[in-house]
Amino acid sequence: MKTKYLLTLIAAAGLFFTACKHDNFVEPKATLSGRVVYNGEQIAVRNNAVQLELWQDGFALRAPINVNVAQDGTFSASLFDGTYKLTRKGNAPWLQQSTDTIVVQVKGQTKLDVPVTPYFTIKNANFNIANNTVTANFVVDKVVAANNNLQNVKLYLGSSILTDEVRAEFKADANVATLVLGANSTITATVPNSLRSLTHVFARIGVKSSATGEYNYSAIQKIPLN
Fold first, then answer.
1. pLDDT tens across 164-193, in order?
2. What pLDDT, in 10s, does the model give residues 62-78?
3. What is the reported pTM?
4. 30-115, CATH topology level
5. H-helix or E-strand spanning residue 126
6. Which of 85, 70, 80 is nearest to 36 (CA)?
7. What span, in angstroms and rounded, lies between the C-alpha atoms of 184 and 202?
8. 69, 73, 136, 155: least CB-packed within 10 angstroms?
9. Which of these CATH numbers, 2.60.40.2060, 1.20.210.10, 2.30.40.10, 2.30.30.240, describes 120-224?
């Protein structure tokens, strides 16, 4: 009985110290936030579909910290103060550059612009709606020359500010065969019945390279319907 009682006390003590250790865990208080940019302009993407990767040396269990990029090209991560290496992951609408790391010193609230090289850019996107017809004007430019073909250009309309290739009530394709890079292009489409009862819709243009599975987008715009 004494042996059984002693083992019970030891087990209880172990649980107590484990709980104390968990309760005393220090949460990260620093923040690294910033933008993914090309020539100083934010690159808009599909929300939380594209990631950056952070590494920190000097720990026994060295694992990456994945940082999601928001639909407007911004990101934020809660970290401990210290030195990190940032890499730009693949399957994004820009060159992977995984061997080109950015060393960043995080201390308190740290801001960082992460430069990327998109396969294509979208400029001067604007949208007009009249008599349930939307007209989108925009310019697509090619940035990366090698192994990069223009695969798709689309107009998206949706009820959410997160409208994109996956989450959109309406999509209309541009004729890529006739689209002239660097020149003004237009997509005209009829607003679907499913959106006409709304006071507004969200609109954007998406462009996809043959080199990646992800689109990059124009900034989302809120367009009044009534």
1. 999 999 999 999 999 999 999 999 999 999
2. 688 999 999 999 999 99
3. 0.83
4. Immunoglobulin-like (2.60.40)
5. strand 120-130
6. 70
7. 21
8. 73
9. 2.60.40.2060
